[in-house]
Specification:
alpha/beta, five-stranded parallel β-sheet, Enolase-like, domain 1, FAD/NAD-binding_dom, FAD/NAD(P)-binding domain, FAD, binds flavin-adenine dinucleotide
Length: about 400
């Protein structure tokens, strides 16, 4: 085989999974993981959940593989080393210290950068949440905070709201859309999420944005777009993220809302691949789609690795899945529901719920809150493109 050295840039789930799959597929050449973080690759979902509300939760609990795993599998870790550029003709990656790393095949897994609000002054107490160090800083300040304003009721904003409530912090959740999660799951399910948070004492303000923050050194006040002023000593900005591709500017690799890939992770440039949150893969319908969920990473690694090694990818039909933990309710989503699908809420006990999403007469997805068994039962129907009448009975 001509591939002797595979360089993986990024040090999260996609990097760790890909390296693991390469060794499982008996790739015997060099594997190098280049990460700008100093920590071993770790799992992000707990950062907005247990890490935030449990004071004794530590890094070891989220670390994906212990250091021995990398040693035993002869995987070189270049931690604390940001990649700053790539020369695709010379097949080298440049690092922040000016050194270069050669590759035969390059796999990009650099994930996302959380969006900030540029007009905000630089005050203590304003947070974003993407990495472990940010979660530690937020947890430390949450320990003494009285009231938090969370800007954006997407999954991360909602989970942070739940974690801060568990700590006893007062929470104001501000969302310009009519309901939390409305752009992903639609307003009907969004309303059930609002109900859940209100029942836990969150002050949910929808249809309104944030126009400014003020304070001396530390944040003290948030002004909403309707002019309301809210006192707060903690602000969490959860307004989404953008693909971490700045370091690829000028490389010639095609980027359009993420790194543009075919349906197996090949980019527009030979010997360069991408997967995970940073990558926009061609989906089964031929559209480019970038997915920001955990399960997608594992699925993409399972496809990309064999192809890179010249083997056939697995043929299994994959039904997309993600979850979000808010209080005691695990919200699970299977399939590809869209905000403008017809939503059939078939169970609702005032806190837990189950809903089927209908598009063109077919079951497009299922969303459950606190209904794990019932969600998973629908997998085969979604995979088969079954008519909605099959699940509505
Ligand atoms: C707080 C939080 C909670 C989440 N909860 C859920 C959940 O409940 N359910 C769910 O399905 N998904 C959840 N997710 C999403 C899930 O964690 C991601 O889909 C997954 O982490 C993506 O993995 P990745 O390896 O593509 O990217 P990442 O995990 O982001 O890893 C990218 C890595 O690349 C590094 N990097 C970036 N630029 C460079 C560079 N230039 N050079 C070197 N290294 C670089 C980054 O520092 C990072 O270590 C959550 C995400 C977050 C942030």
């Amino acid at each position: 085989m001509s591939t002797e050295k595979i360089v993986i840039v990024g040090g999260g789930l996609a990097a760790s999974r890909t390296a693991e799959q390469l060794r499982r597929a008996e790739f015997a050449g060099d594997i190098v993981i280049v990460s700008d973080e100093v920590h071993l690759p770790y799992d992000r979902p707990p950062l907005s959940k247990d890490v935030l509300h449990k004071d004794d939760h530590d890094l070891a609990e989220v670390t994906l593989k212990p250091r021995e795993f990398y040693d035993e599998n002869n995987i070189t870790l270049r931690l604390g080393s940001a990649a700053t550029g790539v020369d695709t003709a010379a097949k080298t990656v440049t690092l922040a210290d000016g050194s270069t790393v050669e590759y035969d095949e390059l796999i990009v897994t650099t994930g996302l950068v959380p969006k900030r609000i540029p007009s905000f002054p630089d005050l203590e107490g304003i947070h974003v949440l993407r990495n472990y160090d940010e979660s530690q800083k937020l947890r430390t300040q949450a320990a003494t905070a009285r009231r938090a304003v969370i800007i954006g009721a997407g999954f991360i904003g909602c989970e942070v709201a739940a974690s801060l409530r568990k700590r006893g912090v007062e929470v104001v959740l501000v969302e310009p859309q009519p309901e939390p999660l409305a752009s992903v799951l639609g307003t009907q399910i969004g309303a059930l999420v609002t109900r859940l948070h209100r029942a836990e004492g969150v002050d949910v303000r929808t249809g309104v944005g944030v126009s400014g923050v003020a304070g001396e050194n530390a944040v003290q006040q948030v002004t909403l777009s309707d002019g309301t002023e809210v006192e707060a000593d903690l602000v969490v900005v959860g307004i989404g993220s953008r693909p971490a591709t700045d370091w690829l500017d000028g490389s010639g690799i095609e980027i359009d809302n993420g790194i543009v890939c075919d349906n197996v992770g090949r980019t527009s440039t030979p010997h360069v691949w991408a997967l995970g949150d940073v990558a926009s893969w061609k989906d089964a319908t031929g559209h480019q789609a970038r997915v920001e969920h955990w399960s997608n990473v594992a699925e993409q690694a399972r496809v990309l690795v064999p192809v890179l090694l010249g083997k056939e990818p697995p043929e299994a039909v994959v039904v997309p899945y993600f979850w979000s933990d808010q209080y005691d309710v695990k919200i699970q989503c299977l399939g590809e529901p869209e905000a403008d699908d017809i939503v059939h809420i078939v169970e609702d006990d005032g806190r837990k719920f189950l809903a089927y999403y209908e598009r063109d007469g077919v079951v497009a997805g299922v969303v459950g809150g606190g209904m794990p068994g019932k969600v998973m039962k629908v997998r085969a129907k979604i995979a088969a493109g079954a008519p909605i009448s099959d699940v509505l009975g």
